[in-house]
Design brief:
repeat, 5-stranded parallel β-sheet, EC 2.6.1.16, about 45% helix, glutamine amidotransferase, Glutamine--fructose-6-phosphate aminotransferase [isomerizing], globular, binds 5-amino-5-deoxy-1-O-phosphono-D-mannitol, alpha/beta
Length: about 375
């Protein structure tokens, strides 16, 4: 049932190219995006002037990625909030507010409560869930199903990637309906997004050794930092959650620019810092942040773009991923981080699929 893999997590990580392909199948028609399940006309979508992405845990991290895309492609202000906070405050909601609720299980108590609250206040709610007919699907105005299929490991991997790809499509749709993206731009983005399936396949085939080497370097650490900027910051949060969830190694994510505002005090000889240093407009800034950490003794594990030889001067271990546009870097860069957390967990003798104290779905608040 594990398909020859030692655990479900590894099996599910390897299903991700298929998830990307299935999530994109049939979504581009005559040069424009089609997401009929959303049940909103192009005019209604055009009127949206505020977006909230509401979710918990890993799904919240998919939301952090979406915020960057929605704001840059659709130019609509987007806030991402954990559902347990959103439901107990008084957010600004009008009839032109779109609430996007993201939940793998479709039954997370806080996310459901947030959906109900948002609808009472007059917002349109889109659900993004992996479970057909789940409460999130039933109680939202429209729903996009991530095509992950059943996820057994408690740690979300393939469902996270399905969420990121679905939210990327939604951001493109909003960009299209706001008149911010041309048909040509949508087509180009879509085809590059589709290419990530093969790129993830390649990462899975090629990064085992570099991931293992990096895992060996951090297996005995008490704590680790994950840093990045922009899309890389969003990716770091998920990397750190995965690490603490299954390996019990304390890991925190920070926007790299925050290092000197506190976290750099943690760095001493051998302290692991995992840096997302893929190609982007802020690449040089990330490099200078990791140099600052390294100067204080940090052991740098960098996720970088293939062909970037220079990064080897600044990092102790490098895990390469194929070159993609920055907008799609979370899709590729997340994969080695999933493998890294699993490798550390295995080396530490942890139960990868069933981490202590956690349940696959959280139906009580
Ligand atoms: O089913 P949901 O997406 O609503 O679940 C949200 C979180 O409980 C979930 O993502 C959790 O953080 C996972 N264990 C992450 O791997």
């Amino acid at each position: 049932e594990k398909g020859g893999y030692p655990d479900f997590m590894l099996k599910e990580i390897h299903e991700q190219p298929r998830v990307i392909r299935d999530t994109l199948a049939g979504r581009l028609s005559a040069g424009s995006l089609v997401i009929d399940e959303l049940d909103m006309t192009a005019e209604e979508l055009n009127l949206v002037d505020r977006v909230y992405v509401i979710a918990c845990g890993t799904s919240y991290h998919a939301g952090l990625i979406a915020k960057n895309l929605i704001e840059s492609w659709a130019r609509i202000p987007c806030e991402v909030e954990v559902a347990s906070e959103f439901r107990y405050r008084n957010p600004i909601i009008t009839p032109t507010t779109l609430v996007v609720a993201v939940s793998q299980s479709g039954e997370t108590a806080d996310t459901l409560a947030a959906i109900r609250d948002a609808r009472v206040k007059g917002a349109k709610v889109f659900g993004i869930t992996n479970v057909v007919g789940s409460p999130v699907a039933r109680e939202s105005d429209g729903v996009i199903y991530t095509k992950a299929n059943k996820e057994i490991a408690v740690a979300s991997t393939k469902s996270f990637l399905g969420q990121v790809v679905s939210l990327t499509l939604l951001a493109m749709l909003l960009g299209q309906s706001q008149g911010e993206l041309t048909g040509g731009q949508v087509k180009l983005l879509f085809s590059e997004l589709a290419d990530t399936a093969e790129q993830v396949e390649r990462i899975l085939a090629e990064c085992t050794d570099s991931v293992d080497e990096a895992a060996e370097a951090m297996v005995d650490a008490a704590s680790a930092l994950f840093i990045g900027r922009g899309m890389g910051a969003a990716t770091s949060y998920e990397g750190a959650l995965k690490m603490k969830e299954i390996s019990y190694l304390h890991a925190e994510a920070y926007a790299a620019g925050e290092m000197k505002h506190g976290p750099i005090a943690l760095i001493d000889e051998g302290f692991p810092v995992v840096a997302i240093a893929t190609n982007s407009a802020v690449y040089d800034k990330v490099v200078s942040n990791l140099q600052e950490s390294r100067a204080r003794g940090a052991c740098i594990i960098a996720v970088a773009t293939e062909g970037d030889e220079d990064i080897k001067k600044h990092a102790d271990h490098v895990i390469y991923v194929p070159k993609v546009r920055d907008a799609f870097s979370p899709i590729t860069a997340s994969v080695p981080l999933q493998l890294l957390s699993r490798a550390v967990a295995v080396k530490r003798g942890c139960d990868v699929d069933q981490p202590r104290n956690l349940a696959k779905s959280v139906t009580v608040e």
